[in-house]
Amino acid sequence: MARLNLNRLTRIAVVLTATVLFLLARSAFAQEETGEGAEPVGAGPGVLEPVPLTPPPAEEAPPPVVFPQPQNIHATDLPNDNGTGVALLFDKAAAENDRTYYTVSIALSAGGPFAEATSFGAAGNFKENFNKYYPGFYWFGRFRNPNTVHVAPITEIVTGVDEQGRPKHEPLTTGKTYYLKLAIEQDGETMELPQVFEAVPKQDWFNTALSNNFLFAVIFGAIILFFIARARRDPNLFIRKIAGLEAVDEAIGRATEMGKPILYLNGMSDLSSLSTIAALNILGRVSRRVANYESQLTVPCRDPVVLTVAQEIVKQGYADAGRPDAFNADSIFFLTSDQFSYAAAVSGIMMRDRPSANFFMGYYYAESLILAETGASTGAIQIAATDSATQLPFFITTCDYTLIGEELYASSAYLSREPLLLGSLKGQDMGKAFMMIVLLVCTILLTCGVVFVKELFRALG
Amino acid sequence: MKRFLEWFLVLDRRIIYTLVALAVIVPLLFPLNLRIYPTPEVESVHESLNELPAGSPVLVSVDFDPAALPELYPMLISMLRQSFQQKLKVFITCLWPNGVNLAPMAIDQVITDMKKLDPEFDVVDGEDYVYLGYQPGTVLVMLKMAQDIRKAFPKDVAKRETSTLPIFEDTWKLSQMKYMVMIEAGDTGDYWIVYGTTPNKVPVGAGVTGVMAPQYFPWLQAKQVDGIIAGLKGAAEWEVLLGYAGSATKSMDPQSIVHALIFLAIILANIFAFWLAAIKRKEERS
Amino acid sequence: MQFFRRRFPILLAFLAGIAMFFAQYVPAKPAQALYSGFIDWTIIIAGFAGIFGIISLTHYHMTKVRRRVPGYGFSVTTLTGFTVMLVIGLFFGIAQPNVKTAGDWMFLNLMIPMQATMFATLAFFIASAAFRAFRARTAEASALLVAGLIVILGRVPIGHYIPKLTDLAAWIMANPSMSAYRGIFLGVALAGIAMSVRIIFGVERTYMGGGD
After folding, report:
1. Is B36 on the interface with C (CB under 8 A)?
2. Is the Cβ of B164 closer than 8 Å to some Cβ of chain A?
3. In this structure, what CATH number is given to the domain that contains residue A94?
4. Within chain A, how many helices (H) and strands (E) appear?
């Protein structure tokens, strides 16, 4: 039998046919992949690509945006304000992340048009960030549920445009209904919730953020009034010696012996300052004693209103001492309201008139050292009383006696020895004792890690 | 020796004044160029301003009069320099009537100085900065500024309606300020903190005279104040941080020498007092 | 008449004091309007009170000039300076944009140098006061002395050349000094409350003048 002899031509035809079929098949698959009849991709001429046996997997479509679903969305009046604010509140959603933003818009009617009022990221605008409006939550609630409730306070609305074409912002009107909407932006996409929330701004008649402040003020006031009332029944109240006030008589006596005037300054503040009132109280007592001793009193004033009051007080002091004829209205005069001009003028009076006693009572600024040092250079006895803590060191180094801070306020009671005034001093001391106990207890509590105690004493308003 | 000690302990004031005058004049003529090291309180203010992006609104309150000018004016210059360098929007107010002319002086000086460094430098009044001038009322002005600065200052010093100025386009109330520097010679700073910056959550740096600095440390500790620039040295530290030698830096040599003189005088006075007491005790025993 | 001289001012002080106290705690508009109204009136009254001051000043110095008391030249200088500033300020001092007025010139060339000079004298005074006062007579004075010396040098550049001095000075400022200030502030605040209660409830009446 003869061997089947596929001759060379046949072998070539088979190979060629297989090659053509292979190439056609590859071309068809390449078109399916591109879908546009693009040229088949490959490593280049002369390189055979492996034939893919299964089609490549299609590219994954981007996952759908998952918007957070805030719960318990509601709009209310903004508390502790003057009736020009509303707020939208909602619970923090579980799906929130750093790509979440909330926008609240406001309108005058439920149908709109709504304008953006405020926008914030999910990391902020929690209830505890607005302690002024939600003090109760800040003091007591936030430790149990920190960062769980978002708040969007709104106090303004765009009502139009001004002449320059810029949006005109107006505060909200008390009693008017406003409509709010919430929109959520997540991963660059925005979804507006369809619900519309209503709120009406209302005036509040007590700022609960200052309730701790109010409580302490009432407690202290009550303590002081209690002791004033008690002093009516029992006028024998002990008060420690204050050397500066004990020296007032000595100073006036010295001035009388030397035939020199007494210089009395009421400080640099106006009559709205308590220290000026305290200084004027002392002036009343001093003027009475000066009248008794028949000495001279010079009272240069920095403030015109203080001048008029000082004149009345000194006049009455002379009248109470039975020496109304000795009163000289020209001895109480206005110099200037300018700080250093006043210091220069008083220094000039000291150098020319050489008073033997200088009283620096009230609030002082940087000129205190100029006054006191000039007075010291003339050899006068100097008594200072100020609540200005920054000037105390200067008075202490240059004056013979210095009353510090509250001793100035106590001086009226001290000099008059009136039971009612002494009673108020006692009340003040009790208030201070209460404060010291509170400080001690809170220090211990804070050291033991009870942190919320510190916040109880912060005025949030 | 005893007479010398007695003479020294009651040294005539005029001798002390003369020594102080020399201690000021000599270092000015022969500078020592003592190195100035910024303190954390001043660095805090500088860094806080540094971190603000261009276009951020900042408020400067010029609450001092010419008496405090040597100490506080350099701070105002530094504040304006840094703000203009960083292209911040500067709102300038004044709550002291005697200080109303100080801000325009400072603005003119800073613009002139910066043009010398960079001829291209330019800031436009009403766009890059605005000087609102003085308004009486202090606390009332602050409360009004919290609502609307344009209502607190209806016109600026150039008598332009503030509501028409471009600088007020995006900023019209206190809470929108990104930072504030108050330059204080009196009590206005306490009112700013209580009525202005704390309720409106505006970070604030306090530039104060040296004497007032201890008064502001409680505010600093309570974090109601971001930093304190205390006195002439604080102003010099700020100049160092900004990289220029202004009047505050040049005043550091005399200040150092005067302080050293006072230090020496006190030490000597105490040593001599003890010495004199020892001599007197010895005389009494003998 | 007695009612208007004695009781009416006390009643007025009581009502005003209570109203201003509650205005601090009431955010509603009427309360805030009352508060700002009071402040506005304070400013207005202070402005008018300036007129009284000018009258008093003029009268005081004119009297000294008329009587030719020793040193009346200073009064002449005061009256002259006062008149010049008043005239220039009123007629040549109104601020104009980008225009330097005569009032500006006086402010820049007179007011600023004079005020700065007065402030500068403090340096001399503090040197002499410190020299006289900082003596270690008692334990407290010694503590004051040591703290003062540390802060005097520690707060200036020359203090950096002494190791740890600036840190110690900063510690003193931030700790004991601040604590002392806090104590004084607390005491003054409480005394202020006590004094305010006394004034509001009419216990303290000396400030009214005209006796108790």
Report:
1. yes
2. yes
3. 2.60.40.10
4. 12, 16
Are B25 and B131 found together in one domain?
Answer: no
Q: Does the CB of B222 have a partner CB in chain C at under 8 Å?
A: no
Flag whether residue C96 sits within 8 Å of chain A, measured between CB atoms: no
Would B35 be classed as within a structural domain?
A: no
SS3 A383: strand
Torsion angle (degrees, nearest 10) of CA A19, A25, A28, A29: -120
- A457/B242: higher pLDDT: B242
- Three-state SS for A296? coil
Of B169, B209, B214, nearest to A166 by CB-CB distance is B169
Closest residue, chain C, to A330 (C-alpha) = C60
- Measured between CA atoms, the residue of chain B closest to residue C157 is B36
Residues B17 and B79 both lie in one domain: no
pLDDT-above-90 percentage for chain C: 23
Q: Of the candidates A163, A171, A390, which has its C-beta nearest B212's C-beta?
A: A390
Token pair 């409360």 is found at B143
Domain range enclosing B120: 40-245
Q: What is the pLDDT confidence band of residue C48, given thresholds at 50, 70 and 90?
A: confident
The SS3 call for residue B155 is: strand
Residues near B285 by Cβ (< 8 Å), separated by ≥ 6?
none
B215 touches chain A (CB under 8 A): yes
Residue appearing with tokens 């010099």: B236
Q: How far apart are CA C163 and CA B283, in angstroms?
A: 41
Calpha distance C155→B227 (Å, rounded): 16
Residues A341 and A248 in one domain: yes
CA distance C22 to chain A (A): 9
Of A338, A366, A389, the CB nearest to B215: A389
3-state secondary structure of C16: helix
Q: Please write the tens of the pLDDT for every residue from C124-163.
A: 999 999 998 888 888 988 998 999 999 999 999 989 899 8
Q: Which residue matches tokens 């010093």? A: B157
Which region, left, alpha or beta, applies to residue A84 given φ > 0 means left and ψ of -120 to 50 means alpha? alpha
Cβ <8 Å between A390 and B172: no
CA distance A185 to A103: 8
| Residue A103 contacts residue A119 (beta carbons within 8 Å) | yes
| B199 touching A (Cβ < 8 Å) | yes
C71-79 CB contacts, 8 Å cutoff, 24+ apart: C71/A352, C74/A348
Say how many domains are in chain A.
Answer: 3
Query: In DSSP terms, which residues pair with B204 in a beta bridge?
Result: B180
CA distance A405 to chain B (A): 14
| Secondary structure class of A323 (helix, strand, coil) | coil
CB contact (8 A) between residue A277 and residue C52: no
B199 assigned to some structural domain: yes
- By C-alpha distance, the chain A residue nearest C196 is A274
In the structure encoding, which two tokens stand for residue B34, read together?
Answer: 């003592």
Q: How far apart are the first and last CA of chain B?
A: 17
Query: Does B221 score more than 60 pLDDT?
Result: yes
pTM of the predicted model as reported, rounded to 2 decimal places: 0.82
Say which of A330, A397, A406 has its CB closest to residue C129: A397
Q: How confident is the model at residue C98 (pLDDT cuts 50, 70, 90)?
A: low
Angle between helix axes B247-285 and B231-242 (nearest 10 degrees) is 140
The per-residue pLDDT for B139 is 87
Q: Do A272 and A409 share a domain, yes or no?
A: yes
- Best mutation target among C66, C185, C197, C199 (most A Cβ atoms within 10 Å) is C197
Q: What is the ipTM of this complex?
A: 0.86
Please identify among residues 171-230 of chain A the ones whose CB lies closer than 8 Å to any CB of chain B. 171
Find the domain containing A248 and state its range. 243-417
Both B11 and B44 in one domain: the answer is no
Residue B85 has pLDDT above 50, yes or no: yes
Q: Quick one: B69 and B180 in the same domain? A: yes
For tokens 């201690």, name the residue.
B23
